[in-house]
Predict the structure.
Amino acid sequence: MEYVRALGAELERESRLHELKPRTIYAGGGTPSLLGKDALRLLRELLEEHLDLSAVEEFDLEANPRTFDEAKASVLHEIGVTRMSLGVQSWIPSELEVLGRDHSPDEAEEAFEILRASGIPRLSLDLMFSVPGQTKESWAESLERTLSLDPGHVSAYNLTYEEDTEFLERLRKGEFSEDENLDADLYLLAEKTLGKAGFEHYEISNYARSGQRSLHNASYWEGCDYLGLGAGATSTIDGIRWTNRPDTPAYVAAGTAGMVPDRESETLDRDAVFLERLALGLRRVEGIDRGLLEGRPSSLAAASMLESEGLLEGAKDDRLNLTSKGRLVVDPIVVELSGD
């Protein structure tokens, strides 16, 4: 409850500085489904108090399968949540153990059915591939069990080894290994399986049935301004980006004392905005406007080269899009097009 009150204090301050009329609201970057029922109701009250909610089209919330029951799901529906992203990650017990997940496949399925019965209209299942020990057969099994539940949206993320994580330490010790060819096979298997089932592959890691795209994520990919609240949250408004320090006790203490959370801030220059629009735009099926590269001869030359290699389409048209082959190597393509 104290954390939600701290969120309210930050929101109140920001509402005095900016006109806040959001199109989407997203509760995530952690496990907001851990909040109790009273805390969730308080969160809704604070949003109504400090935001103009008249334009909201989507209220999305991330959930762990073991953090709610029928009663809490009912409260989520009550406070206006319209979309839930359920972090299943895998339907294979051994893979869940490697990922450190505390739910079983059956518990995840039960959680999904609870959400469906609650009346929340749009449900997404989040999966992970390239999990250590995962095979093409086990990935196919996870995809098929996902489809058997008939979600409107599926996110399929490639496991990455990030700094200061146990996964990276185990990779360095040789306990885990990376296989780029297997990664590509698993990615293409998801694309084929979900596509055959009627899902649109509208972003590198995201698949949706008609009308089921994530509106909130689309706003990031389109370069819209956004306000982030909470410990570790990032905001970008009018070319200024700031990030709260990821220290929850310090964040709550600042909110209780009526102080601004400890944060870092930067002004995004022209090159930073260009690189971000390039990287995020190419991930989407719509691609980027070719005009983004105008005035950058090296970027235009790189686009022509990438098209000749079958990685990019539309080098001489209005839009630039990655091919299926290109989506496998999006990061190196961004580097090429950036001119770095």
